[in-house]
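User: Predict the complex.
Assistant: Input components as received:
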Amino acid sequence: MTHAQRGLVPAALQRLDKAEIIRSRERIAELAHTTPVMTCQTFDREIGAELFFKCENFQRTGSFKLRGAANAVFSLTHEEGAKGVATFSSGNHGAAIALAARARGIRAFVVMPERATPVKRAAIEGYGATVIDCPGGPPEHERELARVIEKTGVIYIHPFNDARVIAGQATAAFELIHEVPNLDVLITPVGGGGLLSGTALAAAIFAPRIKIFAAEPDGANDAYRSLKAGKLIPVGNATTVADGLRTSLGSLTFPVIRRHVHKIICVSDTEILDAMRRIWERMKIVVEPSAAAALAALLKKSAVFAGKRVGVILSGGNVDLNLSGYGAPDPA
Amino acid sequence: MTHAQRGLVPAALQRLDKAEIIRSRERIAELAHTTPVMTCQTFDREIGAELFFKCENFQRTGSFKLRGAANAVFSLTHEEGAKGVATFSSGNHGAAIALAARARGIRAFVVMPERATPVKRAAIEGYGATVIDCPGGPPEHERELARVIEKTGVIYIHPFNDARVIAGQATAAFELIHEVPNLDVLITPVGGGGLLSGTALAAAIFAPRIKIFAAEPDGANDAYRSLKAGKLIPVGNATTVADGLRTSLGSLTFPVIRRHVHKIICVSDTEILDAMRRIWERMKIVVEPSAAAALAALLKKSAVFAGKRVGVILSGGNVDLNLSGYGAPDPA
């Protein structure tokens, strides 16, 4: 029985099988790095597990988002590609679309909320995309995006609710599963669910004995509540430091997560920031709060993972650094 | 003509030849990582060179200091080892001595200045060493260390002015030279000169066409001034954010540096902190200010390095993180 034959999978995802994940990985190979896997004795000891960190903070553009964006952009037909692409993003997906479009030699438009950080805006423009600043909230953003698409005729690439994007995100777990044998668990953060559903599909197809977990901020716990209720309950006003996890699940990602994800562990912003600081200090790598949520969940529920071999997808490393504590006069 | 026959080398370093560096690397292999080499397109473009970063921030204990400390501790005879070891350190060398002593199963004492950060103190105690807090300045520290040595009969291991330590530090450049062929330049930061003299000796022995540069903070530029004057001019009151570079050269390191180092480039604390921030942001790795000094020098004098293949030793990643900028209320 193939994955698609098990039912419950949205029609748009039924072609997302073994061959399609392998094809996606080949499709993005020219642009995306095969990121390294790191280990950390301190965290292993503390949790009593063997952790394998898939370092998507070292991915080009600084996050896993490049995988999905590149797969989507490189999947376009010649005619579609000639039109260009557009998306809405406050950061990582926008940079990923911009770089993928540049690599393909097509134009890209990124609608950004006004509050997006100058650093992220500069990164997207640095890759040659046109940034369209948009004040207001989600309704205004959607209207502006629709206006851009209508005016320019470009192809819209959704940040997560898109089969090509999900297949691209699945390549991170695909690589991890093949580099580290006999994993018992995979854990990712969850926002819109692109990474989580891609990870869950890759595991279901290539290593079905792996249990899938996700980490979600208390202030944006729609996935936790949706799984509990058995229906999509979008979060109203997300409040979390993990800016990549403020979005709610979509119509494609929710059914996959409902079917394949074992448990969602909710963590507070304090727990996320503490885990982030500890990753920086101990592993000497820069990860963003969204990425640290996964370690925060492992530390919080360590008993669940004791004795297990756990793959952790560190989703990205794009942070605005505040170094104001440095350079203070030496007290000696 | 062997290296030692060229003259000008202090007697204590005359045995530091090709065989001894290879032996040192074998001696420390059970404890020290062969650290990865990273590249960064952004910095390559900006400087117009090919940079190869030797990531000693990923070394055990978080800095290259482990190499020298392990080589010294593992070089002791059975009788010497039975006595234990002692050193003075405000951080990285102390942690390195503590871990090396634990690995050999011998006791270690680390005299620390009172102003040493609690994090560094905890790390040293975590490795099982006895920390002796010592108020006052260098005269008091020396007296306290002498007292400890007299009382306990342990062997003193100087942070840099020791042939075994210098041979250990040489193994970082040894690895880099063998992993990355045809380097034109090697650059390290310089404080007491252990890393720099070890690097210079490794290059002189294994790849003599490589030019050696060093980066030094304006506020502790004794190496720059000593090279210019042709004699050791210790810095009086070092003031720099790069806490690993506040020390002055020693009687063993100065002659090696005088003989083999092409140029010392001085950088300001602002340039160091800017380079550090950019390494964190672009490479997604955590390095300490001392390590960032080398990139600061490359950025400052980029014309010197244009078109060259440059090996950069990122000396360490031990920082006290200030994350006070995180978790602020979301403005949206």
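The domain at 4-63+162-314 of chain A is CATH 3.40.50.1100 (Rossmann fold).
Let me know if you want any component modeled separately.
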